[in-house]
Amino acid sequence: MKTNNKFTQNETVRIKSTGEHVTIIKWMYVKNMKRFSYILKEYPNTFYFEEEMESI
């Protein structure tokens, strides 16, 4: 299955609101919201959407 997610597992990205560099450990597609969510190594109990992060 081809995916159109912006980021991949183990990629380092920046959180837009804080400027903090973080590492993605897991991503998944949220079907009812029609977008991707990501779980970060530094915050494993929280998820972020693509719009909240940017590539370094």
Notes on the protein architecture:
The protein has 56 residues and is mainly β. It contains no helices and five strands. The chain has strands spanning 12-15, 21-30, 35-40, 47-49, 53-55. It has a five-stranded antiparallel β-sheet with strand order 4-3-2-1-5, with no helix packed on it. Strand 1 (12-15) and strand 2 form a beta hairpin. The radius of gyration is 11 Å and the shape is globular. The mean pLDDT is 94.
Produce the secondary structure layout.
Blueprint: E1 12-15, E2 21-30, E3 35-40, E4 47-49, E5 53-55
Antiparallel strand pairs: 1-2, 1-5, 2-3, 3-4
According to DSSP, the number of beta strands is 5
What share of residues are in beta strands?
A: over 45%
Fraction of residues in helices? Answer: under 10%
Poorly predicted residue ranges: none
Mean pLDDT: 94
Radius of gyration: 11 Å
Number of helices: 0
> What class would the helix/strand composition place it in?
mainly beta
What is the string of SSEs from the N terminus onward? Answer: EEEEE
Please give the order of strands in the largest beta sheet.
Answer: 4-3-2-1-5
Shape: globular
Quick one: biggest sheet?
A: 5 strands, antiparallel
N-end to C-end Cα span:
27 Å
Short overview:
With 56 residues, this protein is an all-beta fold.
Characteristic terms for this protein:
single chain; 56 residues; mainly beta
